Amino acid sequence: MFINCHSFHSLRYGTLSIKELVRQAHELGAKQLVLTDINTVTGIYDFKKACEDLGIKPIPGVEVRKEGKLLYVAIARRFSGIGEINKVITDHNFDDKELFETAPEFKEVLVVYPMSNIPAELKTNELVGVRIEELNFLIRPEYKKYISKMVVLHPVTFSTDEEYGLHKILRAIDNNILLSKLTKREVCRQSEYFISEQHIIKTFERYPQIIENTKNLLEQCDFEFDFKKVKNKQFYTKSKESDVQLLRRLAYLGLEKRYGLGHEVAQTRVEKELGVIDELNFCSYFLITWDIIRYSNKMGFMHVGRGSGANSIVSYCLGITDICPLELDLYFERFLNLNRKTPPDFDLDWSWQNRDAILEYIFDRYGKNHVAFCGTNVEFKYRSIFREVGKVFGLPKEELDDLSKKPMESHDRNSVVRQVQKYGKLLEKFPNQRSMHACGILISEEPITHYTALEMPPKGFPIVQFDMNVAEDIGLEKFDILSQRGLGTINDTVNLVKKTRGITIDIRDTTLSKNEEQANEYLAVGKTIGCFYIESPAMRGLLRRLKCDNYRTLVAASSIIRPGVAQSGMMREYIFRHNHPDQFEYFHPVFEEHLKETYGIMVYQEDVIKIAQYFGGLSLADGDILRRAMSGKGRSIQKLQEVRTNFFESCKKKGHSEALTAEAYRQIESFAGYSFCKAHSASYAVESYQSLYLKVYYPLEFMVSVINNQGGFYRTEVYIHEAKMSGGNIQTPCVNTSEYQTTLKGTDVYLGLMLLEGLETRIAHAIVEEREKNGDYKSLEDFIRRISIGIETVQILIFIGAFRFTGKPKNELLVEARLLLVNFKPENRGLMLIEEPVQEFKLPQLKRENFEDAFDEIELIGFPVSCSPFDLLQTKYRGSVFVNDLLKFHKRQVKMLAYLISRKHVPTKKGTMYFGTWIDVHGEYFDTAHFPDSLKQYDFQGGGCYLLLGTVEVDFHFPTITIHKMAKMPMIPDPRYAYDKEKQYDIHRQIKEDVSMTSRKPYPQAHEIGLPRGRLI
């Protein structure tokens, strides 16, 4: 009897999850249920599964609304009816096609109109819904004639009084109004909760035909849907046979290119993989991916194929990936095997500059009716909950800020705040809005509206109304089309080297960088700032601890830095065994046989699966559950518990001791906190090497490209410092030399206009375009005549030194600018400046103090360029020890003066600690550890230079200073405000630092790990 049910996928309206909706219906004995969320089919597939689990017949539909008004309820008679409804919603979302008061011509859809919107004539598939509270209206003559076409309309939106209150809050949030301003029109009726079917029949006993009509409606609907059938584009060519032939031909062409003729091992592997790909009907998926890569290569774009797809030699031969699976002993079954229950996907990266071009190709090549992004449900988060709920209760902005930033236990306990907290808790995990998945693209055989309505978010690409998990469930395999700045940096560096030096670098030749001795030397000492994935303080420290000077070690390092490995204590143990290979034994022969390359330590996801299979005797199905848990996909505590039970039982049968089994599983379990598969680490390592190679041999071109791709782990200042350390002469922006981006002329690095805070992007581009079109600017007057600009913007350019080509001091230029622009109207620009030349004034010589330029630079770009931060200190002291000598001071106390680069928050059992990264006066980097006890008295005070006192701890070749005391050193007063004492220290607060926060669990200490270094029995 329930043909109009809302879940919380009726965004900011419904209050029931799909599971809760179905559970409540089941408890009332419902045998059929219709889900009709408002203008969406987001929940229908989860709804079908939930219903069938409890023996309820599921029926999908949509409640069609326009501007909040209910027009009709559309209920699918067959699954094809959902496609008809989807088309109507999609046309409305895309083309603003009007949703009319009456439904269009449907073939497999039943339409139920509310009594407030009965059309003049009802079609054969159209009915009128009567609510319990509307029964009295049926005595009226105008309604009597419809009784033969009437059904029971009892909407379900909430389940309790508390949830009704939550519904009203959601409606206020949606309408952006105070709770007290809500009207009846904007909320559901107070009767919209489940009641028993017997109660409905009793209430409608005078109108048995309405009951009968409702039963007939439910009887004639059916939600037939095959979850297992793959919905992706079936064939790249016209048939499976021709797909198989094409894939085989391309694989063998690539085999010859990659390995030459007669490589039997590679050929055997290709044949094996082609057989599995064919059997699993994956040929079209490979060919579509190859087609995308072919287009990318044609356009000259650089890409990286990573993830488990790099385990495939066929993908290597097709050019999808650049990792040789034979070199690293990568096994294909990690990507695709006959036991795998869920389809894999390729992870493909492009530069952030090229990704949109790739997306446009995919949409054009495969048809806009067949391609869409996965959606994602953006849930209410802690901050948004308190802001949104607090706002509808009328709390002022200051209090909203306070609520959203502080933990609940520290909130004021007044009655309104208690209400905000009460409803805020209910909103946790509620979907708030739909958004676009970061990278998942779906390409379907049938028009994609067969399965979902589409929405068009602001980013301009259509999205389906469900997320990647539902897409996977219903048989739509996604293609991950990602973007990253690291590839942009590599690509831009190659192009810049070609431009500045005339050298063509084949950076795609992966042997080029991996075998470079100097690149390996840089790697071993962590000289990797700016390089993809290996520039963070933690990674640079790891590289030094490992003395990482080769590709295989870098592959391992890329994975052991991940939280899963580090959290388990295996990162620390790997470092020990790498440095002392003669000081441990494998604690079981299986670990020696399968993990010898990584010293018996599980580093990759594959290692975990190997140990689970060969040591624990688990099935491949259980191994797949572990794989999904480790990659963060579909992590199920219940399934993991089942795997654990199976593991212990199987180990017992194999004769393993309880202690041995427990230790092996402890190591396995730790990987559930995310780790990399080996192929993914290898892909990252290749890109890291590519960027490192460019940094080593073309450092200025590389750092300019890093700056233009907006950096990576650090702020721009750090990369500019790196350019300076590489011999670059850093120049502030100049209107006659600078571009929008940073440029390189010889060894002069001209900072781009884009770095100027306060300069509009439009004006920055206009300055460059006008100069390219009509030549250099001859003077400040010439510039103002040619560029539409106001005095505030001119002042920014003067203060940064952008008119230094005139030879005039900044003070004089400022006076001239004000004279030029006094009472100036933009429409008179040409007339005034041409016909009324500026009168020449003899200005008194205004003296500029030392370091005024530096303070201008701090104000406008965030850091000094014309001098070092150390030059701006009041003290002349520069430290007693410098970075290059730290290794000599193990266990000794040192005093250093340093400039703060970044600090990372790290949780410990005793409270918050930080790791700091600094440079000394020579520009060299070092790291510090700040424990909770030290921070209580000597906390960070923002960006700037500090005097540090601490003890050096050298841990496997890597020195860290444990800080006991520190103090921020005072800078000289701002000389620009010599006569305004209040402003002399304002600008000092703009000195920046990078702060990264993490909420991970504390990593274990060496004594807590207890990882056995001897044989366990």
Give a description of the structure.
This protein is of the alpha/beta class and 1017 residues long. The chain folds into 6 domains: 18-160 and 174-220, Metal-dependent hydrolases (TIM Barrel, Alpha-Beta Barrel), CATH 3.20.20; 240-366, no CATH class; 371-476, no CATH class; 487-686, no CATH class; 728-861, DNA polymerase, domain 1, CATH 1.10.150; 869-996, Nucleic acid-binding proteins (OB fold (Dihydrolipoamide Acetyltransferase, E2P)), CATH 2.40.50. The chain is 41% helix and 14% strand. It contains 39 helices and 22 strands. Strands 1-2-3-4-5-6 form a 6-stranded mixed β-sheet. β5 (126-130), α4 (141-144) and β6 form a beta-alpha-beta unit. Mean pLDDT is 90; it is low at 831-835. It catalyses: DNA(n) + a 2'-deoxyribonucleoside 5'-triphosphate = DNA(n+1) + diphosphate. GO terms for molecular function: 3'-5' exonuclease activity; DNA-directed DNA polymerase activity. Residues 997-1017 are annotated as: Disordered. This is DNA polymerase III subunit alpha. Residues 5-68 form the Polymerase/histidinol phosphatase N-terminal domain.
Structure keywords:
single chain, 1017 residues, alpha/beta, TIM Barrel, 6 domains, six-stranded mixed β-sheet, five-stranded mixed β-sheet, 22 strands, 41% helix, DNA-directed DNA polymerase, EC 2.7.7.7, DNA replication
Helix content: 40-55%
Whole-number average pLDDT?
Answer: 90
The SS-based structural class is alpha/beta
What Rg do the Cα atoms give? 34 Å
Strand order of the largest sheet: 1-2-3-4-5-6
Largest sheet: 6 strands, mixed
Quick one: how many beta strands? 22
Strand content: 5-15%
Please mark out the parts with pLDDT under 50 across 5 or more consecutive residues, or reply none: 831-835
Number of separate domains: 6
Measured between the Cα atoms of the first and last residue, the distance is 64 Å
> What spatial form do the alpha-carbon principal axes imply?
globular
Please, how many helices?
A: 39
